[in-house]
Amino acid sequence: MSISLHEASTAAYVRGFRALADLLAKAKDHGGDALVEKRLAPDMLNLAGQVQRASDTAKFGVARVADVEAPSFEDNETTIDQLLARIDGTVKWIESVPAEKVDAGASRTITRKFGPHERTFTANEYLMVFALPNFYFHITTAYDILRHNGVGVGKLDYLGFNG
Questions:
Q1: H or E segment to which residue 116 belongs
Q2: Residue 121 pairs with which residues in a beta bridge?
Q3: What mean pLDDT comes out for the span 141-158?
Q4: DSSP 8-state code for residue 70
Q5: Which end of the chain is more exposed for a tag (fewer CB within 10 A), N or C?
Q6: Do residues 7 and 102 lie in contact, with contact meaning Cβ atoms separated by under 8 Å?
Q7: Which of 1-5, 11-15, 131-135 has the lowest mean pLDDT?
Q8: What gap in Å lies between CA 5 and CA 102, rounded to an integer?
Q9: Element (H, E) at 72
């Protein structure tokens, strides 16, 4: 049995964002907007940056595979409610991209620059080797920031089973 690119990407992104939104809702009751600027280390993005990068990774992942234009977001969120709105906008856009457009990208190649290096992926490789791992990195780091700052979340919250 095989799964389509749409099933492998859209479902994973939407599930991850639903769990992240639940985590942020819990954060509103513990520290609130002060958590938006928290980070794990000085050279890491803060909570807002983690949510923004997760959003960008998901929307550009779908856009590049489906060969459609992704919406532009300003990266100016300073409150949890604004981060939740960013997640909501990202999910709505991802869900609006027809499955057929995503699946039609199966034979597409995607070239990305990483610093001075360039890498060309098949659409499947791009999703499985770069986009999804990068998405989960930022979702996990957002979880870690909240957990580190005393928000009462655990593994079941991260997995989306405690919402």
A1: none
A2: 110
A3: 93
A4: P
A5: N
A6: no
A7: 1-5
A8: 6
A9: none
Distance (Å, whole) CA 148 – CA 146: 5
Structure tokens at 2: 């095989």
Query: Which run of H or of E encompasses 44?
Result: none
Rg of the chain over all Cα atoms, to the nearest angstrom: 16
Total residue length of the chain? 163
Burial code (b: 16+ CB inside 10 Å, e: under 16) for 62-93 equals bbbbbebebeebeeebeebeebbebbeebbeb
Strands of the chain (E only): list them.
109-114, 117-122
Residue 147 is encoded by which pair of tokens? 């957990």
pTM above 0.85, yes or no: yes
Residue type at 37? E
- Region of residue 114 (left: phi > 0; alpha: psi -120 to 50; beta: else): beta
Please tell me the distance from the alpha carbon of residue 93 to that of residue 133, in angstroms, as a whole number: 20
Query: Tokens in use for 125?
Result: 């490789």
